[in-house]
Amino acid sequence: MIEFKNVQKTYPNGTTALSNINLKIEQGEFVAVIGLSGAGKSTLIRCINRMHDITDGQLLVDHVDVSKLRGKQIRRFRRRIGMIFQSFNLVNRISVINNVLVSFVPDLSLWRKLTGIFTKEQKLLALEALDKVGILDKAYIRVDQLSGGQQQRVALARTLAQNPDIILADEPIASLDPVTSKIVMEDFKRINQTMKISVIMNIHHVEVALEYANRIIGVRAGEIVFDGAPAEVSKRV
Ligand code: ADP
Ligand code: ADP
């Protein structure tokens, strides 16, 4: 469970991106965070895994105050939380399977040294993750030869290989065409439903959010202005 208690986030330049956020997200929910550009969606998501630190209030994940985590604890904590970006954040010029195996490297700067020493078990986990998102047949192709949608599914497989409880997705379909977006959203939905992984996604396509998420959180100027089921969303959000 993720709990925001009176959370505030002010950036060092004085911009307050979140004010007084109160929120509870249970394990297994599929939450879409919607709102205009600059509303605070990305900040909200990135505080959950400590990409950003909150400046006031409390943020708890499974009753643990994430602000109190240090060093090794943060790394262990982040392994439970997958992160998906608009720009995929893959390692170009290497194969799809090696991109998934990256999730087993504790520190990306060690990547070059560690390549080739993965265990058979890790390779099987990587292939299994690729199978879950329907791109097992692409395992040995260079990742930069895939389409955008396929690359986002590689990113999703990399996250799944970590066996996360939560996946945070920051505008995962923003750079994809409508048809590809649908395929990627179907993947998220299937992962959420069959593996009970919580999905918390920023998305500016309201219609897509309504179609796939179970809960919609509307953010405006750093505050939550709507929180409810897709069916309750009115046109004014
Ligand atoms: P959204 O994801 O809804 O577009 P963001 O969370 O990215 O919104 O941004 C919320 C507000 O915080 C905006 O006013 C944005 O300009 C500001 N902001 C975001 N990141 C930073 C940063 N690193 N430093 C200063 N201001 C930031
Ligand atoms: P994205 O769509 O990938 O979130 P953004 O343009 O929103 O890209 O932000 C890119 C980076 O710049 C992010 O790390 C964000 O925190 C930072 N950023 C966004 N707005 C501001 C701002 N007003 N001042 C400083 N940094 C910002």
UniProtKB/TrEMBL annotation:
Key words, A-Z: ATP-binding, Cell membrane, Membrane, Nucleotide-binding, Phosphonate transport, Translocase, Transport
Domain named ABC transporter: residues: 2-237
Matches recorded under Gene3D superfamilies: P-loop containing nucleotide triphosphate hydrolases
InterPro entries: AAA+_ATPase, ABC_transporter-like_ATP-bd, ABC_transporter-like_CS, ABC_transpr_PhnC, MetN_ABC_transporter-like, P-loop_NTPase
The keyword Cell membrane appears for this protein: yes
Coiled coil: none
Molecular function GO labels: ATP binding
Protein known as: Phosphonate ABC transporter ATP-binding protein
